[in-house]
């Protein structure tokens, strides 16, 4: 596996994995809360949740390219010796990822087979909250050790939830009634506001903290092409969808919501690329091209995987 392909697979896996993991979270939330929205979105969220075990299998590609993806795994980078010895080292990294992905896969199976009651869903969401706090840093921030943010895990969790909602909008049926469409639109609007708020607050806190490591991280991502990527993500995937969702006609229209969902997914993809790829310096361009190819491969594998399941997953039952 070449260096560019390994990095491209990492970016593609992070981007593609947002939807299945976000769908799992939404399904567990619905088990706890109930509501028409979960029943309306079930035809899209349940097949997406079924992809969580595939995401766990696809992580093998990330593990195979560990040295190319993460400088600390190759013995380079700015991480402190104690951090490398006690936390950022390949065995512990793979152990955390394995426990997380196995746990998420088991929760997905419980949800899809109707065995996830309210107790299991509550414990599952607690497990998700704990594990995403660890692996969001492992899988994404540690590509460039030295920068940290206490709100980063929450921001990534919101990314995943928003991605699942946007995917649900993209896959919504043409005959979706106005009331159900409005429910989905309101959920997307709330999640989108959460993502925009968390990203803005993280920037303000980091920038005005006047710490060299954090300022340097943002400066690298504000240079040249990356400024354009960020602007495109913010305007195309944030401001424009937000403005569209303010109109009642858009909120009640399945066709308009599919456009909004597509814009949000593209914006989230660009934002994650903006976070990860600048860490690779001159190799970012090759990694981006390989990442595009890998996203197509993962999409095709998803279709094949769902086809091999042989049937649509059953509806989630309440305890």
UniProtKB/TrEMBL annotation:
Query: Would the keyword Glycoprotein turn up in this protein's UniProt record?
Result: no
Query: Which regions span the lipid bilayer?
Result: 12-32, 44-66, 93-112, 119-140, 152-172, 184-209, 229-250, 257-277, 283-306
For this UniProt entry, which residues form the secretion signal?
none
> Which keywords label this protein?
Membrane, Transmembrane, Transmembrane helix
Q: Report what the protein is called.
A: Uncharacterized protein
Recorded source organism is: Methylobacterium gnaphalii
């Amino acid at each position: 596996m070449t260096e560019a392909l390994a990095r491209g697979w990492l970016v593609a896996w992070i981007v593609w994995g947002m939807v299945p993991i976000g769908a799992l979270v939404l399904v567990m939330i619905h088990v706890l809360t109930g509501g028409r929205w979960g029943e309306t979105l079930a035809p899209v969220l349940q097949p997406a949740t079924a992809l969580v075990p595939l995401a766990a299998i696809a992580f093998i590609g990330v593990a195979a390219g560990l040295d190319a993806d993460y400088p600390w795994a190759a013995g380079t980078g700015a991480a402190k010796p104690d951090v490398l010895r006690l936390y950022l080292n390949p065995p512990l990294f793979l152990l955390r990822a394995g426990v997380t992905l196995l746990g998420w896969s088991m929760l997905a199976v419980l949800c899809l087979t109707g065995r996830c009651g309210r107790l299991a869903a509550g414990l599952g969401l607690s497990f998700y909250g704990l594990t995403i706090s660890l692996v969001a840093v492992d899988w994404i921030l540690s590509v460039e050790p030295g920068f940290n943010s206490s709100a980063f895990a929450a921001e990534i969790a919101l990314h995943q939830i928003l991605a699942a909602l946007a995917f649900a909008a993209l896959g919504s049926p043409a005959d979706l009634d106005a009331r159900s469409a409005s429910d989905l639109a309101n959920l997307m609007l709330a999640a989108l506001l959460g993502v925009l708020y968390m990203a803005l607050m993280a920037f303000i806190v980091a920038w005005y903290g006047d710490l060299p490591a954090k300022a340097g991280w943002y400066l690298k991502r504000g240079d040249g092409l990356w400024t354009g990527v960020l602007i495109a993500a913010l305007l195309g995937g944030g401001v424009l969808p937000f403005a569209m969702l303010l109109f009642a006609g858009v909120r009640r229209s399945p066709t308009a919501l599919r456009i909004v969902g597509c814009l949000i997914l593209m914006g989230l993809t660009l934002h994650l690329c903006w976070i990860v790829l600048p860490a690779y310096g001159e190799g970012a361009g090759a990694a981006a091209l390989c990442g595009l190819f890998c996203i197509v491969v993962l999409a095709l594998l998803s279709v094949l995987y769902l086809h091999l399941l042989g049937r649509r997953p059953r509806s989630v039952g309440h305890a």
